[in-house]
Amino acid sequence: MSNKAVISLTTGLEDAERVTVAFLVAVGAAESGRPTLMFLTKEAVRLAIEGVARGTACEGCPPLADLIGRYQAAGGQFLVCPICVDAKGLRESSWIAGAELGGTVQMWEWIGDGATTFSY
Predict the structure, then answer these.
(1) I want to staple 99 with a disulfide (CB 3.0 to 4.6 A). Which of 58, 63, 69, 95 is the partner?
(2) What pTM does this model have?
(3) How many domains is the chain built from?
């Protein structure tokens, strides 16, 4: 059985608490040594743009920038939906470290023999 983790996130800063929960799950997986991929679609693609993912979702929640930094430091990767990027006119954006454009084919290639998945 694979120890990989995939977190699919469709929500952006319009629901910062959901984004925070998704990143907490991703950080937990990556920091525990699991190869971890976040598949960003819909509004979540904006989170992969340099400087966008800022703020704190709630009292007591860790800042989103800190969670992203921890995720990156633990080797977490981001796969950013190119269809969503193009639909939002974001193709020329500056992407955060660990982010690359790729769709479902690339996600399935990364998954290979299996992964635990979460969807937010």
Answers:
(1) 95
(2) 0.95
(3) 1
